[in-house]
Specification:
By secondary structure, this protein is of the alpha+beta class. The chain is built from four helices and ten strands, in the order βαββαβαβαβββββ.
Length: 182
């Protein structure tokens, strides 16, 4: 969901790919200076039965975001990406666990090399903070929710936080502040 006080130029629902759009995973709001994309990435499934579907989604959204970026900067808020980037982003390590597979982590890290910035990790390089925690096994936690910006916005990000005190879900909110003044 996107809440805004500024009237958007346009709203794009989905990626234009039926198999992903049927699940209502992406909404893009275009403003004068950038796009804001809210995305809910598929989960690979406990038995990894949807890993192939998820990786296809990752490839498709990457193409979509790179295409948007050719016009203006992009902000991607993924609550949730369902991927922990590295060991610092998980309280446990099992590469057969959804979100920790080598395929998922490789995709996210490669995507970031395409000129996108993990804003929280950029501003907090060694912080061990999680955005998701299992209700059943409270010790199981991962940082799988991100606010990512395209490189053009790197120096405009003034704050990136995980709002750990906000309760009500197994996920906590993530937020960024951007100074868009020149």
């Amino acid at each position: 969901m996107t809440l805004t006080k500024i009237r958007p130029i346009s709203i794009i629902k989905g990626l234009g790919i039926k198999e992903f759009d049927a699940e209502g995973r992406v909404i893009t709001v275009e403003f004068n200076d950038f796009y804001v994309v809210n995305a809910y990435f598929p989960r690979a499934g406990d038995d990894l039965s949807r890993l192939s579907f998820k990786m296809s989604f990752c490839t498709a959204i990457e193409r979509f975001l790179v295409n948007l970026r050719s016009g203006k900067p992009v902000i991607v808020c993924g609550g949730d990406f369902n991927i922990a980037r590295d060991r610092i982003d998980s309280s446990f390590w099992d590469e057969k666990h959804p979100g920790l597979t080598p395929e998922e982590r490789a995709w996210l890290n490669q995507f970031l090399k395409e000129g996108f910035i993990d804003t929280f990790r950029e501003l907090h390089p060694s912080a061990k903070v999680f955005t998701w925690r299992s209700y059943r096994e409270r010790w199981r936690a991962m940082r799988i929710d991100y606010c990512i910006v395209s490189e053009e916005l790197r120096n405009k990000v003034t704050k990136a936080e995980v709002l750990s005190d906000v309760e009500g879900s197994d996920h906590v909110p993530v937020m960024i502040e951007i100074n868009n003044e020149d």
